[in-house]
Amino acid sequence: MAKQPMLKFVKTAKEMPQKRDADVRSHDFGEIYREFAAEKAAEQSGRCSQCGVPYCQSHCPLHNNIPDWLRLTAEGRLQEAYEISQATNTFPEICGRICPQDRLCEGNCVIEQSGHGTVTIGAVEKYITDTAFDMGWVKPIKPATDRAESVAIIGAGPGGLSAADVLRRAGVQVTVYDRYDRAGGLLTYGIPGFKLEKDIVMQRVKQLEDGGVEFVLNCNVGTDISFDAIRGKHDAVLIAAGVYKTRELTNEGADAAGIVRAIDFLTASNKKSFGDDVPEFEDGTLNASGKRVVVIGGGDTAMDCVRTAIRQGATSVKCLYRRDRANMPGSQREVQNAEEEGVEFVWLAAPAGFSGNPVSQVSVQKMRLGAPDASGRQSPEKIEGGIYEEGADLVIKALGFEPEDIQADWDAEELETTRWGTVKAQFGTHATSIPGVYAVGDIVRGASLVVWAIRDGREAGEEMLRYLATTTSVAAE
């Protein structure tokens, strides 16, 4: 009888891939987790209970067939595991690295709920696809037949790229327009290398390029090319522009030099990692070296900023967040990594004002949690008289992102938006108010997760294929 490869969670403890020592990793931008060895990946996959109702799968936005590829990995059938993983996820090697698994699949693992420690789903997902690239199992995109229809995608982030993959595999001609000089969006310029090394993103971009996807970079829609011109050149359009407008501070002194946007700080750091010439990094404007750094915010972007500042050689790094640790939106795993690397978190604290120009001091308002708000989270309240001063040479605003005014910037008044400024798109189809124009990702959802953008892009790609088939058949008649 064959040996049972699964249900080993009772005897085998949860084990993550080894982390590089904090004292070493905090001086470079290499990924902090080492790769699983084949035996360890099989062992940890074998902890899966193969439960009848896989909550890991139902809580994954892509509904990945997680129990299936865990079993295949435990059995040593890695190529099949990769094929099952790739069937529902355009970029499993990226999701395995940056998804907040503690809030999604792993956080809802049945054996985690029973006290045995979750299956390390993300680490296995990463291992499967990295192995697939190494072994040559990731095949070039080769449509069976090239089609005449053409689609424009505005935005080369995860939503746009996942849609491009779906459309190009079906033979559609795909052109991706993006404001940056490299494709990838926030995958390339927003997420630091210690979470997602850039060659991982670039290998997927190359796969799309080699498969016939055309990239038009350094192209700002509304400035370098009009939205109407794009619509005129293509049979359908997908808006996947993301949200890049930073929420601003309104405190006194918030316009001082030395108070910078998180996106600018992270983009400069990532460009530097590519070897680019970055004047604002070289002159110290977007460089934390030798500075007392204060990051304001409690999401994943704030975590990226504090950990980047440590690696740039800041003398101290503090993160102010107005709620407590339990109520922060960022990944708890990221908070732990940051603390190991020397970041100090100041909970229940918010900026009250700034002194100096360039900034030299932050007035910090102590907070407490009051009654729950409409979302169910306790609202932060000021503690009367609870203000103190914190020295700072660089303040980074990581307060979240909002959409730019697309209607005005693109001269697209017919494109319906919500009261928050996001593009209004139908649930499921992602169709907008303009026939043949679709929208996905953060520009629809507001600032959200990469995995949701991938799901949106895949769904929109399939819907656009149906639209193209309909319009083509009508035209033929």
From TrEMBL:
<dbReference type="Pfam" id="PF14691">
    <property type="entry name" value="Fer4_20"/>
</dbReference>
<dbReference type="GO" id="GO:0051539">
    <property type="term" value="F:4 iron, 4 sulfur cluster binding"/>
</dbReference>
<keyword id="KW-0560">Oxidoreductase</keyword>
<dbReference type="GO" id="GO:0016491">
    <property type="term" value="F:oxidoreductase activity"/>
</dbReference>
<dbReference type="Pfam" id="PF07992">
    <property type="entry name" value="Pyr_redox_2"/>
</dbReference>
<dbReference type="InterPro" id="IPR028261">
    <property type="entry name" value="DPD_II"/>
</dbReference>
<keyword id="KW-0479">Metal-binding</keyword>
<keyword id="KW-0408">Iron</keyword>
<dbReference type="InterPro" id="IPR023753">
    <property type="entry name" value="FAD/NAD-binding_dom"/>
</dbReference>
<keyword id="KW-0004">4Fe-4S</keyword>
<feature type="domain" description="Dihydroprymidine dehydrogenase">
    <location>
        <begin position="26"/>
        <end position="136"/>
    </location>
</feature>
<dbReference type="GO" id="GO:0046872">
    <property type="term" value="F:metal ion binding"/>
</dbReference>
<dbReference type="InterPro" id="IPR006006">
    <property type="entry name" value="GltD-like"/>
</dbReference>
<feature type="domain" description="FAD/NAD(P)-binding">
    <location>
        <begin position="150"/>
        <end position="457"/>
    </location>
</feature>
<protein>
    <submittedName>
        <fullName>Dihydropyrimidine dehydrogenase</fullName>
    </submittedName>
</protein>
<dbReference type="InterPro" id="IPR036188">
    <property type="entry name" value="FAD/NAD-bd_sf"/>
</dbReference>
<keyword id="KW-0411">Iron-sulfur</keyword>
<dbReference type="InterPro" id="IPR009051">
    <property type="entry name" value="Helical_ferredxn"/>
</dbReference>
